[in-house]
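Lab notebook: predicted structure, single chain.

Context: the supervisor wants predicted structures on file for every construct in the current expression panel, including those that have not yet been purified. This is the next one on the list. No modifications to the sequence; it matches the entry in the shared construct table.
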Amino acid sequence: MAARLNPVSDEIIDRFVQACHRVGQRGLARCSTGNLSLRVGDDRMLVTASGSWMEQLSPDDITLCRINDGALLQGKKPSIEVGFHSGILKSRPDVNVVLHYQSPCATTLACQGLKNLNYFVISEIPFHIGPVATIPFLLPGTKELAQAVTDAMRDHDLVMMSNHGQTTVACDVDHAIQNAEFFEMACEIILRSGDRLETLPEEAVRALLEARSPA
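Prediction complete. Output recorded below exactly as produced.
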């Protein structure tokens, strides 16, 4: 594998595989849904292969692609969403990981067509994620979707993709998974609370946003 994805080390590949397994085991992606990318050089990234299952991903299900244009360099055909993975990593030098996932509660809200929904129901959202972007439904794998997600993520760390799922970014895999888990928890709280929901006070939100940790 190290030779096939030269010059990516076995250690990096093993960590990437383990990260994908964690995404699947935590219920953030089911069967062949979801995809992950990791910056491994100035213009290279690892991306899960098209049709691969995160929970049982093997080293053979990893591709090496160019960040600049998403072109395949080595391995199988990459995820159909390679366009926004490359677009985000190209426009966001401050992040190294892009995670596209579809957790149940968050995706339920993504399918409800709600406008201007306030996700600041727990302090973890403003502090770790910040404001959440929303884009309309666009067909998976299209240039239109890739551009919309890339544009939304220029100044956001998580985007809700209507009737599709979520994408989040971070400096490393642990933080990306944490973003996804915190956001899923917030969405579950919103769904369970109904009309009894109380969001965080505006003053607290301002303080948390000012103190927020980097992506």
